[in-house]
Amino acid sequence: MQLLLKSVDFAARAHRDQRRKGPAHEPYINHPIEVSRLIIECEPHTDEYVLCAAVLHDVIEDCGATRDEIAACFNEMIADIVLEVSDDKALPRDERKARQIETAPHLSNGAKLVRLADKVANVGAMLTDTPVGWDREQILRYVDWAEAVIAPCRAVSSGLSDRFDAIARDVRAWHTEKEEAGV
């Protein structure tokens, strides 16, 4: 438990100036905490180091933390998972998105859990706090892309897979209803 709380503290400090893209402008830290919570709800026997990696999953790509810094503060296993799920921000956006699909089958099981829970959280946000300026087409493209990313990760958690499917179905239905209603 101490290591998990240490990861929450580290991530909260790293993300302190960041907000989510939705109209609520939630503190960004809510997202990595949600990712860890989703894992523990669906896979209650998950090792603490995976939960820590879930909390830290965006600190390399979004905050400039390094793998070595995470290893020094936590351990090599946590650092490796965080690195596995981190996008290379030096690459163009479309290439980063394509790489998530390409690398997903090769992730460790811990990284697959983090990736799967991250996409459950992000797709869920399309219902509760859709990014400002996103239209129906962009939202549905995101859901389709997320589905492609998690396809090879599903085997690590039927619970997270089922949640993803239910949320994706709700997002598609809700945005289709909105379009048909002219909203």
From TrEMBL:
A Pfam family this chain is assigned to: HD_4
Segments forming domain HD/PDEase: 24-132
Domain of life the protein comes from: Bacteria
Protein name in the entry: Phosphohydrolase
Source organism per UniProt: Thalassospira permensis NBRC 106175
Taxon lineage: Bacteria, Pseudomonadati, Pseudomonadota, Alphaproteobacteria, Rhodospirillales
